[in-house]
Amino acid sequence: MTVLYKQSFTSTAIWSALGVTVLLTACGGSDSYAPQPVIPPVPVIYSYEVSVTNLTHAQPLSPVAVILHNEGELFEIGISASVALENLAESGDNSQVLADDIALASASGVGVIMPGMSETVSVSITDTQPMMISTAAMLVNTNDAFSGFSGMSLENMAVGESISLLTGSYDSGTEKNSETMATIPGPAAGGEGFNAERDDVDIVTMHAGVISNDDGLVQSVLSQAHRFDNPTLAISVKRVE
Length: 241
Prior knowledge:
- There is one protein chain.
- By secondary structure, this protein is α+β, with helices and mostly antiparallel strands.
- It has one domain (45-239): Sandwich (Immunoglobulin-like).
- It has three helices and ten strands.
- A hairpin with a 6-residue loop joins strand 5 (132-138) and strand 6.
- The longest helix is centred in the N-terminal third of the chain and has 27 residues, at 2-28.
């Protein structure tokens, strides 16, 4: 009985020792469980240059607003203008458009674009691919005229690719086109800019153009020089990164 007990004990001890040996060999003989360095993801930047040329004879443009977005429209023919667009179209103030809820990223021109002049605005966003781009600027010697485009697709646009287009003039429909000194904020009059009261059709339409004092609108502070035909702007959008 004593011998059997010793044999059993010895066998158990041997297997236990072997098990420990195998375990230690498995743990110590491989680097697969060693901590791996954490490599941060490389940020993806989507950058665009928007070049705007003023094609009018005597209509300075307010600073251009550019927004990147994946939903919504900055403006739409036949639809009431947002308060943000109303501010831009009546006063040239683009701050509310730049901060619009649909904007993923936005950028502003540095100043007024005089007739025949151009400006390039750069806008970028990181790690979110924008599907659309919109831009707008006021024709400041008017009551509420603006030009630009809304919701142009950026899908599948490669780095180095560009899109060129000509844009017409729109009426925000928020202020009557009275052309009076009191209601035009541009250098031709120096009148009021934004007014929260809407006294026109209250939908965005194509602009009918300036009538002017020269053409019989007695109260108009504008002359034939301030008239404009379409196209109003030449715009180029280029993906640079």
